[in-house]
Design a protein that fits this description.
AS_sf, globular, alpha/beta, 11 strands, Amidase_CS, Amidase, 11-stranded mixed sheet, single chain, catalytic activity, 13% strand
Length: 449
């Protein structure tokens, strides 16, 4: 049964459908693995064993009587601790929300449950989802990064990437077949890249945010962290209540990609190598690749502080200022940065961003996707991040730089592992083109294998 821990969610679903795996045995295997793993408490904020067993027993009955609800019926997954779970604590990684127990599940979790998926538990995350590094010292008393900081699969002493850090670690360490996270500025794609996974940022507004603890609802999106593009496609369909993208016959022949400068070349050595090698393989598989830039992208990036921090602080100001000492100082300071901007600043920034999004759409219309290194840097050491405030701030901003392009422009995005540890290649596609992006991803996945 231990080999089940390393299979994709889709492969597990097929095995359940063929009668080779019992959903109850599968759930128990994952629960036992999570309870017995040395990093289990740093990955899961809390397990939900009673719920998992009940859902798995229902899935077993459906498998026996031929009424399975879809490919993933009976497959267990993890959920980032900002998705409401009825009767179970949901704290979004913050002691500001200590003991918060919702009455109902988040809508996307309700849809997953109706599709027959099993909820294993809630994973650790960056506090209120406002950091790309994945550290959470607030759960350790503001001085010790444990137990709220999940490990990086390539070196537990390095940052795991955030804010969906536990979601990524649950999959990378074999404690869930897939995890569901959120992405406001890169929070699915960064931890996916740093832990050698596939991560999908969906188009903003595609999936319901009802019952999801917000950071900045104008940018918040939901997405899966998985072992395969197929799993991403299936989980998007589950959370939307629709049909998964058809990935059969996906090919890169005749596709056109834009390498976006300067963000593609202004990266550190290892991510640069992983990216350039990946681009070469995509080209050999038939993709036509052009290097260039898009007018106004630098201006859009400069709008980030007023757009993200202002909305985040406006959302959480009263809660933060009622008990500011409960927060990790670096994240608290980042929220408070939103106080530097006025309401007219915020409105003007959004008006300008909408114009720049139109420019982006016009200048990238004849490309299938834009290519970038997912993250410009490798995971930095946690000890140094804790000890050096300037280093923390600079690394956090750099970590989220490339992924933030997708959020600012309202795009969907997909990161794939390159084969170089903690280095991903990212494709960004037009709003609403999630299925097309997944087909491109499936073809690219084959080229990079």
């Amino acid at each position: 049964m231990s080999d089940w821990l390393w299979q994709s969610a889709s492969d597990l679903g097929r095995a359940i459908g063929a009668g080779r795996i019992d959903p109850v045995d599968l759930a128990e295997t994952y629960l036992e693995a999570a309870r017995g793993h040395e990093y289990g408490p740093r990955i899961y904020a809390r397990l939900t064993p009673d719920r998992a067993r009940a859902e798995a027993m229902a899935a077993r009955d459906r498998a026996k009587n031929g009424t399975r609800r879809g490919l993933l019926d009976g497959v267990p997954i993890s959920w980032k601790d900002l998705f409401d779970t009825a009767g179970v604590v949901t704290e979004a990684g913050s002691m500001l929300l200590e003991g918060r127990v919702p009455d109902t599940d988040a809508e996307v979790l309700q849809r997953a449950t109706r599709a027959g998926l099993t909820c294993l538990g809630k994973t650790h995350m960056s506090e209120l989802a406002f950091a790309g590094l994945g550290m959470n010292p607030a759960y350790g008393g503001n001085t010790d990064p444990e137990p709220g900081t999940p490990p990086n699969v390539n070196d537990p002493a390095l940052a795991p990437g955030g804010s969906s850090s536990g979601a990524a670690a649950s999959v990378a360490f074999g404690l869930a077949p897939a995890g569901i996270g959120s992405d406001t500025g890169g929070s699915v794609r960064v931890p996916a890249a740093w832990n050698d996974l596939v991560g999908l940022k969906t188009t903003h507004g595609r999936l319901s945010l009802q019952g999801v603890v917000p950071l900045a609802e104008s940018f918040d999106t939901i997405g899966p962290l998985c072992r395969s593009v197929e799993d991403c496609a299936e989980l998007l369909a589950v959370m939307e209540g629709g049909k998964a993208a058809d990935l059969r016959g996906a090919s890169l022949q005749g596709t056109r990609f834009l390498i976006l400068e300067p963000y593609a070349s202004d990266v550190r050595e290892a991510p640069g190598k992983g990216y350039s090698d990946a681009v070469a393989r995509l080209a050999r598989a038939g993709a036509e690749i052009t290097t260039g830039t898009v007018s106004g992208i630098a201006e859009a990036m400069d709008l980030s502080p007023v757009l993200f921090a202002t909305e985040g602080y406006g959302t959480w100001r009263e809660v933060i200022e009622a008990a500011p000492d409960k927060m990790y100082v670096r994240i608290r300071d980042r929220f408070r940065g939103g106080a530097a901007f006025s309401a007219p600043d915020y409105v003007a920034a959004w008006r300008r961003l909408r114009v720049l999004r139109q420019v982006w759409a016009a200048e990238t219309a004849h490309y299938d996707a834009v290519l970038l290194p997912t993250v410009p840097n490798l995971p930095p050491p946690i000890d140094r991040l804790m000890a050096d405030a300037d280093f923390y701030v600079s690394e956090n901003l750099l970590t989220l730089r490339n992924t933030r392009v997708g959020n600012l422009m309202g795009l969907c995005g997909l990161t794939l592992p390159t084969g170089v540890p903690s280095c991903g290649v990212m494709m960004l596609a037009a709003p609403g083109a999630d299925e097309r992006l997944l087909r491109l991803g499936a073809a690219a996945e084959a080229a990079l294998a």
